[in-house]
Amino acid sequence: MSYTFMTSLVLVFAILWDLAIVRTRLLGRRVFWAGYAIVLAFQLLINGWLTYNNVFLYDESAILGVRVFYQPVEDLAFGFSLVLTVQSMWVFLGRRGIRN
Amino acid sequence: MKHYTYLAAMGFTFIGSIWLEVFLKVSVLKRIRRVLLTIFPVGIAFVLWDRFAITQGHWRFDNAQVLPLNRIWGLPLEEYLFFIFVPLAAILTIEAVRKVNGHWKVGDER
User: Fold this and answer.
1) Which among A3, A10, A50 has CB closest to B9?
2) Which is the most buried residue in A1, A20, A60, B34, by most CB within 10 A?
C-alpha cells in the first residue's frame, strides 16, 4: 500500500465524514475555504521548510513524486483531510450542545 | 541545534495560531472540553494512520533533526505534538474566520 493510496483513503474518509456521516457540510461553506487557505499557506511554509531540510525522508517508490514547495502532494491531501476532520468534529460537537 | 528542527516547527505552529486566542479573543481555550473532545478522537485516529504509514516505510524521520529521545510507540515526541498543535490551529483558524466574518455560517449556530 503506497503513501499515495493511504492519503487517498483518508481524504475520501474526511469528505464522507463531513458530508455524509456527521453532515456538517463544511465543504459547502465559505468559512471552511477561507480558513483552509490560511492553513494551506502555513502548511506550505512549515512543512515545506521541514521537507526541504529532509526531516522527513520519503520512500520515493511510495509517492507520486509530485512536489509542491518541496513537500509531496500527498502531504497536502493529508493536511486537508486532518483540518477538515478536526473542524467538522468541532462543529458537530457544538451542534450537539457541547459548547464549552 | 539540529535536534530542534522539528520541535521548532511545532513551536512556530503553536505561536502562529495561539495569538488568535489572545488578541482576536476567539475563546477556543475557554471551551476546553469541546477542544479535548475534538482533538483526542481525531488525534488518535490520525496517529494510528500515521504509525501505519511509518511501519509501511513510506517515510522515516531524520534522527539528527528530532529530539534525541526514545521513540514513543514508534513515533518521536514531536509527531504527537503535531497531532495536538495542528488540530488546535485548525480550530483557532475557523473560529477566527467566524469572528472576522460574523455573517458567515459555520453550522453550529443556535
Assistant:
1) A50
2) B34
- In a domain, residue B30? The reply is yes
Distance CA B105, CA B10 (A): 30
Instruction: Report the number of distinct structural domains present in chain B.
Output: 1
Q: Which residues form the domain of A68?
A: 3-95
Q: Distance between CA atoms of A52 and A71, rounded to whole angstroms?
A: 8
Are A100 and B31 in contact, with CB atoms under 8 Å apart?
A: yes
Per-residue pLDDT of chain B (110 residues; tens, 9 = 90+): 899 999 999 999 999 999 999 999 999 999 999 999 999 999 999 999 999 999 999 999 999 999 999 999 999 999 999 999 999 999 999 999 999 999 999 999 98
* Predicted ipTM of the assembly: 0.97
Is residue A100 a part of any domain in this protein?
no
Q: List CB contacts (< 8 A) between B104 and chain A.
A: 29-31, 34
Inter-chain CB proximity B87 and A86 less than 8 Å: yes
Q: How many CA atoms lie within 13 A of B101 on its CB side?
A: 14
